[in-house]
Amino acid sequence: MQLATQPHVAIARDSATQAAFVLPILHAAGTTRALDGHMGRVRALVADDNDDLLAVVSHIIERMGVEVVTASTGGELLERLANDGPFDLVVTDVAMPWMTGLHVVHSARAAGSTCPVVVMTALRDQRTSAQVGALGSNVRLLLKPFALNDLEDAVRASLETTTGESRAPQLPLAPRT
């Protein structure tokens, strides 16, 4: 398989003009990626309106060797998904200002995104569980409060969903504090 390093537009002019936007992404054992200048490193988008929890969750995921981009509102989550991707994983809170994390992920799914998602929430009602379930099989629900090792397990499992192999970097974890 040939992997272009830059997105490009291919135009075929025959009986009807056709254009295709080529955004090459190849995920294999070596986790090779090419899109908008992001090469090689596994990337996660983490969103929560609680600054302290956002910092802790981001730190844990970074400690796993994953590059983290953060958002603190639903609107910022939507903006980052649209402008700063691609992401290998989205970790989001449900209840955030402007737009919920679930609304953003539902919108991304409607647009064709199949990125694995970890949904964090303190909400324990059946409606929230049903909404999370409707996002597909590569979504994990993490109920707050959660243990940090539960977050690590959810991140690892989520990064395994697309290839069947771990896409989390194989780096030793720092000792748990």
Throw out a few tags for this protein:
five-stranded parallel β-sheet, alpha/beta, 2 domains, disordered N terminus, disordered C terminus, 177 residues, 5 helices, Rossmann fold, two-stranded antiparallel ribbon
- Strands of the widest sheet, in order across it, are 4-3-5-6-7
Instruction: State the fourth-level CATH superfamily of the largest domain.
Output: Response regulator
Which sequence of SSEs, written as H and E, runs from N to C? EEEHEHEHEHEH
Q: Beta-strand level of the residues, as a percent range?
A: 15-25%
What would you call the shape?
Answer: globular
Mean pLDDT level: 78
**DSSP summary, beta strand count:** 7
User: What helical percentage do the residues reach?
Assistant: 25-40%
Helix/strand-derived class?
alpha/beta
CATH class of the largest domain: Alpha Beta
Q: What is the second-level CATH architecture of the largest domain?
A: 3-Layer(aba) Sandwich
Point out poorly predicted stretches.
1-13, 17-39, 167-177
> How would a crystallographer describe the biggest sheet?
5 strands, parallel
In DSSP terms (H or I, runs of 4 or more residues), the helix count works out at 5
Through-space gap between termini:
43 Å
Count of discrete domains:
2
- Radius of gyration equals 17 Å
CATH third-tier fold name of the largest domain: Rossmann fold
